[in-house]
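Usage example:
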Amino acid sequence: MNRKQLLPLLLLLYLPACVSLDQVRTFSKNACGILSSINDLDYSFKASYIKYTLPGKDFDLSLKEPTPDTAALRLFGQADATIAMFSNALLAYFSGLGQLADPSTGSTDYSKLGDAIKGNEKVLNKLHITGDQVEAGVSLAHKITDALTRHYKEEKIKEVILEDTAAVRKVVEALSAGLSELQNNIVSDQGQLKAKYFLVTADPDIDKGARILFAREYQKEVTELEEKKHAIAAQKRGLEVLYRGHQDIADRLRDNKLSAGQILSLLEQYSADLQTIYNDIKKLAK
Amino acid sequence: MATNLDLTQLGLAYQSAGKAINDRISDDFNDLDFHQVQELSNKAQDLFIKSKSLFALATISLQDDAKASLQSLSDASDKLNKAIAKLARIQKIVNIATDLVSIAGDVLSADFKEIPGSVKSLLADISAKPGE
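Running the assembly step on the lines above writes:
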């Protein structure tokens, strides 16, 4: 390798990173946390149908559908699968970004190679080098490979973020709209429960003790549904931050107006926001 | 074909009608007999159940608009996974170089007994998938 070839490599060792890999990793990890919480939410169209529309054990005075309707089960199952498809597509994308930005991805271990050369007198003599020179070579190889790997990762991340901003926006919007429909579904569940509550309260054949039990159960259900609604609202806020963060970075990368320090502080801010929202979701969706 | 917005609006209209009936029961509860409450409650529940089917349909209809973007995201994920696999290959090459040093040492020492073992290790490195 001549000096002209070596110079760009040496420059790479000292150039500041245009994309902060650590922060991309943290941002992606927090984005994955929000997206996973959507898959882990203990509420779905199908679960709602089974719980509130089909008769349960107690107080089923209005039996709307005595047995599960196959078409209804398919419909609600498809709606759930649609939401899962959007969140899983985003999850695969952000987990790929996070994995590529992870320091352990592509880190190369030269120590065994160094030991193999150092431990072999014949090879050392043939190459006319000493053990110390091998150590120095291994150390340089580490630095050059790390710099090249970092540069490759940064370029790849930049390329993917720039190319796919519109797709991320579209899928985030679709996922958020799906979550809004799920919130609408909760409001209808609450209305349905209320209608059933009136029915039980007005029924002269149900004794006072049973009515009190039902009233307690009703309150518990309404509160749980309210918490699910808040958890979904937090997830939608998380999606908004996730999208804005992705878009903001893409815009600035495109204009080349962002310094490494600015990218870092932007990513830190978005990551912190995502972490806060994620903690809220965890508290709400127990 | 109904759009996502149409289906949502219709679902919300059914929901509002259900809520209005609930309000009516609540307001006139003391003046209604059980059968009147039963009739109104059933009507309200029916409206809420219909609204939920419309919300589910509205969710499914989102797929059409997002189809191309989902494909782009899937391509982007593939690109990221390929980049990750490419980086894993660097370590594989270093492992092969390590085995080659071992073979070179055996050849230079004329230690022919050790060569098959070193070659076996080299072959294992060559055939291993990145990340193994």
